[in-house]
Specification:
The protein has helices at residues 7-19, 35-47, 65-70, 75-85, 95-98, 117-120, 124-139, 151-163, 193-198, 201-214, 220-231, and strands spanning 2-4, 24-29, 50-55, 89-91, 143-147, 169-173, 237-245, 260-268, 271-279. It is built from eleven helices and nine strands. Helix 7 (124-139) crosses helix 8 and helix 10 runs antiparallel to helix 11 (220-231). The longest helix is centred in the middle third of the chain and has 16 residues, at 124-139. The strands form two sheets. A six-stranded parallel beta sheet has the order 1-4-3-2-5-6, sandwiched between helices. By secondary structure, it is an alpha/beta fold.
Length: 280
Amino acid sequence: MRIVRRPADLRRLIRAAKQQGKQIGFVPTMGALHEGHLSLIRRARKETDLVVVSIFVNPIQFNRSSDLRSYPRTLGKDGRLAAAAGADLLFVPSARQIYPPGFQSFVEVTSLSRRWEGKLRPGHFRGVATVVAKLFNLVTPDAAYFGRKDAQQARIVRQMIRDLNFDIRLEVLPTVREPDGLAMSSRNRRLPTGARRAAAVLFQSLQEGRRLIECGHRRRNEILRRMRQVIRQARGVRIDYVAVVDPDTLEPLEVVRGKALLLLAVRVGKTRLIDCCEVR
């Protein structure tokens, strides 16, 4: 695996690969790699000829500077994991290379960003859409790989690809979970032992929502009430939101017909976690 830091070098290597007829697979990350990221890299390895993984802690998607400063940076370990999973190129640009002096252009997917994470973290998805668009332009992949845990993000990226005519196939892969169901996340390492045990209620709540819908419950309020009950069984847990939404529009559903997306965001102690699942 080769580590590339300069956008010009990345472009040169991508151009040479495309001249040889190679298909480019791309996995954008902010580092602190875990099995969820590695599953994306392995899938890209199976489906494409040249696998590019980016590690870039994107400053414009953080609402608080303290969160940006405290975000884990483990480049040495990440490089070893990415190489073992099948990455060919590891793109590690600086913030100045992505946002040079005078930078003032942003991408915003308006309607899909206004609820849930977008409401609680103003500007977050503008930062995500902007950096993903820039990375797409630099890597020019044939396929890009994202995880399903960040369902709102994946939906926004899909919309941006369509709206801005990116010629990219988006693959959104299943969430990789711990044995107790907790979705793998770089944030999990912040959980002390007691909080880590309590965090299992996220998955338990989603499973209760799924069970209710599959057993014939259709009214949103009853589903949400039961999901919240599960979460409140754990000590030290605060709910930011629990929602039953349309998977396409991300708008709340009063009555479930066909597919529904269950979303939740919960604070376990000082750590904020999100999760989701899709139900028919």
